[in-house]
């Protein structure tokens, strides 16, 4: 009995250290929009991996290679001249969906974490993967944009505001919301 009690007490002391050692948790954002247009029209607006600048207000240009084949890449240039490089991982014409990931981003600054300088990426996230799906919903079209990612700083030190969970989540929500709202406006013209 004494041995069991010792194990439990030791476990209770180690639990905070284990939780702290785990690092950042995976985050998720999902945004949707209902559009008063048929699904085929909306899909044709978003399906080309090199067309994001045509319907997202934060993107001034898209340079892509590989079409809509898995492995295709694109470099997005944002209004602040920062860039994001992405790879198309899955593309399904029949189900009107695709999945992509961010491979690299330019830095928009630096932040000091425990005496060491860290880059602040154009979007304050890491290990980002996203899915865009278009589906008919009655006489409307539902577009869903889902992302799974980690905050910009995944170390075990206290993360700075510029790279924390809240900043990462709010950035993705803002990107998705502005893109989906602009897409709705363009599709309903």
Automatic annotation (TrEMBL):
InterPro entries for this protein: Polyketide_cyclase/dehydratase (IPR019587), START-like_dom_sf (IPR023393)
Region forming the signal peptide: none
Taxonomy, superkingdom: Bacteria
CDD domains xrefs: PYR_PYL_RCAR_like (cd07821)
Pfam families: Polyketide_cyc2
Membrane-traversing stretches: none
Protein name: Polyketide cyclase / dehydrase and lipid transport
Protein's organism: Methylophaga nitratireducenticrescens
């Amino acid at each position: 009995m004494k041995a069991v009690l010792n194990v439990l007490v030791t476990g209770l002391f180690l639990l905070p250290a284990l939780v702290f050692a785990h690092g950042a948790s995976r985050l998720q954002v999902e945004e949707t929009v209902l559009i008063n247009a048929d699904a085929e029209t909306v899909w044709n607006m978003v399906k080309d991996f090199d067309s994001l600048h045509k319907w997202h207000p934060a993107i001034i240009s898209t340079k892509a290679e590989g079409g809509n084949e898995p492995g295709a890449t694109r470099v997005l240039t944002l209004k602040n001249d920062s860039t994001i490089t992405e790879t198309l991982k899955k593309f399904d014409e029949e189900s009107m969906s695709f999945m992509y990931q961010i491979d690299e981003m330019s830095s928009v600054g630096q932040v000091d974490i425990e005496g060491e300088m860290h880059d602040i990426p154009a979007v304050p996230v890491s290990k980002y993967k996203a899915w865009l799906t278009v589906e008919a919903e009655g006489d409307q079209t539902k577009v869903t944009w889902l992302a799974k990612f980690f905050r910009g700083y995944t170390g075990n030190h206290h993360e700075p505001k510029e790279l924390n969970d809240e900043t990462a989540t709010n950035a993705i929500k803002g990107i998705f919301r502005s893109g989906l709202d602009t897409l709705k406006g363009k599709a309903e013209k």
